[in-house]
Amino acid sequence: MIEIYYAEDDVSIALSVKEYLERQNCMVSIFGSIADAKNALRNRLPSVLLLDWNMPDGQGRELCRWIRERQPELPIVFLTVRGDSRDMVLGFQSGADDYVVKPFELAVLYSRILALLRRAGNQKETKLFCGDLTLDKEKLAVFCRREEIAVSRLEYRILLLLMENKGRTVTRQRLLEEIWDSSGNYVNDNTLTVTMKRLREKLDNPPCLKTVRSFGYRMEDAYE
């Protein structure tokens, strides 16, 4: 099922779009402010975000830029009455993937959503993001604020496991079970503690890498 977040303060438009898309087997959640949309995005990412330009607590392009700093891969579509070419350029410059001017045909909107998701699905996810950290799985490299950080093979594997499970706590036991070297040597509990301490220091103690005391670790975006 396609999960859609729709940031729109015009209730009649929002409900019309929601009713149509849910008949197409989508699940649509409506948010009447930028603040509400941010709170929802902190907890869960949808398949696609539909975004109005003028919101009661700011402009949609502000939310678009906020998302792009944290989730570069999330498909974003502007739905707005602002059809001036300058506004459209600003929308795309803010990070939008598509721009639809009101009024629009609902069937066309749905088709554009499907096309956008097809393109997104064909893009191999090679980079993981959390806070100021980026992990490039193709390069086997770690970056903090765009500066490459030299990490050991063991540190890389630990960070990869944590970032692939972003938002979920990974227990120490699971880390110990899954982090093996090429010779099959087991990583003991003390090695894990020392490695995590060293990794934190190399990454300048990132707030997105959290310790769940007596249990494990969790990667979590540090939002404003």
From TrEMBL:
The entry's keywords: DNA-binding, Phosphoprotein, Transcription, Transcription regulation
DNA-binding region: 125-221
Start and end residues of each OmpR/PhoB-type domain: 125-221
Protein's UniProt name: Stage 0 sporulation protein A homolog
4-aspartylphosphate sites (modified residues): 52
Gene3D superfamilies: 3.40.50.2300, 6.10.250.690, Winged helix-like DNA-binding domain superfamily/Winged helix DNA-binding domain (1.10.10.10)
Source organism, top-level taxon: Bacteria
Domain Response regulatory per the UniProt entry, residue ranges: 3-117
SUPFAM superfamilies cross-referenced by the UniProt entry: CheY-like
Gene Ontology biological process: regulation of DNA-templated transcription
Sequence intervals crossing the membrane: none
GO MF annotations, alphabetized: phosphorelay response regulator activity; transcription cis-regulatory region binding
Organism: Candidatus Limivivens intestinipullorum
